[in-house]
Write a structure and sequence with these properties.
- The termini are far apart.
- By secondary structure, the protein is α+β, with helices and mostly antiparallel strands.
């Protein structure tokens, strides 16, 4: 499955911009620009969380913005702005990212107590001296 969508103007939701989003099972690609173009890719297994935001104007014109929180160095937050079918795209990215992590056998973890543990190690070093 693949979603190809253009960034739309907030006014009337018309696709008059030069930004194109392609969401595939293995990767998200963002193409921007007209004369100077730029292409940015992010592998699905790097997507850690996905958020959907819908402003009042986006809701009026049936659009939304999908924010992907990634482990990518170039774009830790990947914005897919002002697109139609935003809810379906968000759900697809969530499922595809989980599937991609399972295929690669990768896991994203967050250690909340890591800072406290580092403080304890520093205190122990002070007492050793």
């Amino acid at each position: 499955m693949e979603f190809i969508e253009r960034k739309r103007l907030l006014f009337f939701g018309l696709p008059w911009t030069f930004t194109k989003y392609t969401v595939r099972e293995e990767m998200i690609t963002i193409n921007t620009g007209f004369l100077n173009t730029r292409e940015n890719d992010c592998y699905m297994y790097k997507v850690q969380d996905v958020e959907l935001t819908v402003s009042l104007w986006e809701r009026i014109f049936g659009m939304g913005t999908v924010i992907c929180y990634t482990g990518d160095t170039t774009n830790p937050k990947l914005y897919i702005e002002h697109v139609k079918c935003a809810k379906e795209i968000k759900d697809f990215i969530l499922d595809a990212s989980e599937e991609a992590r399972m295929k690669r056998r990768t896991m994203n973890t967050l250690r909340i107590d890591a800072a406290a543990e580092m403080d304890d190690d520093l205190r122990d070093d002070e007492y050793d001296e």
